[in-house]
Amino acid sequence: MKKILTILLICSITFGFNRQSHGQNLTDNQINNREMSKKVQYINPDGLSKNPAFSQVVTTQGNGKTIYIGGQDAVNAQGEIVGKGDIAEQTEQVMKNLQTALSACGATFDNIIKLSIYIVHGQDLYRGFQASQKYLGNLKNPPAVTGFFVAALAHPDYLVEVEAIAFIPEE
């Protein structure tokens, strides 16, 4: 039996906001974040729970590049399974794989707007979450996240699989 944790609200909201610098000198990163805030909006509406680990709703607006990353498992560049039987080691490898895929497209974890996480039933969710925080813990705008407990994944040694959607707005 699957336990499904669904934390995604799909909606069509069209409005933007602009953060003023209030006379501050902005770095290139701050300028890029400000520009991205016009095209990608992270929303936690009243009436839905607030959690610092994920956003309830993410909208994209305007032109840009959308990146769809297929399910990443704990497999290194040589095709070897990393961390057999260890959810934390496997999560670390999955995050490295996501980082590699994002980088190949000119993106970072900051560009992720949606994560779908599949965890084999019986695994320690907390250990997997802790391992992911090195990559996701300091995001200013965490993505929308859906987590699934599943009976099994494509290989019997896989314990976790993550797919992602990222968006890079045009400048």
Word description of this protein:
The protein has 171 residues and is α+β, with helices and mostly antiparallel strands. It has one domain (4-169): 60s Ribosomal Protein L30, Chain: A, CATH 3.30.1330.40. The chain has 3 helices and 7 strands. It has helices at residues 28-39, 87-104, 125-136; strands at residues 4-5, 40-43, 57-60, 64-72, 112-120, 144-150, 160-169. It has a 5-stranded mixed sheet with strand order 1-6-5-7-4. Helix 2 (87-104) packs parallel to helix 3. The longest helix is centred in the middle third of the chain and has 18 residues, at 87-104. It is globular. Residues 1-31 have low confidence and may be disordered.
Give the gist of this structure.
By secondary structure, the protein is an alpha+beta fold.
Can you tag this structure with a few keywords?
single chain; 171 residues; alpha+beta; 60s Ribosomal Protein L30, Chain: A; 5-stranded mixed beta sheet; two-stranded antiparallel sheet; 3 helices
Number of DSSP helices? 3
In total, how many domains does the architecture comprise?
1
Name the overall outline.
globular
Per CATH, the superfamily is RutC-like
Strand order of the largest sheet: 1-6-5-7-4
Low-confidence stretches: 1-31
Q: In angstroms, what separates the terminal alpha carbons? A: 46 Å
CATH topology-level name: 60s Ribosomal Protein L30, Chain: A
Q: What percentage of amino acids are in beta strands?
A: 25-35%
Number of strands: 7
Question: What is the share of helical residues?
Answer: 10-25%
Output the CATH class name: Alpha Beta
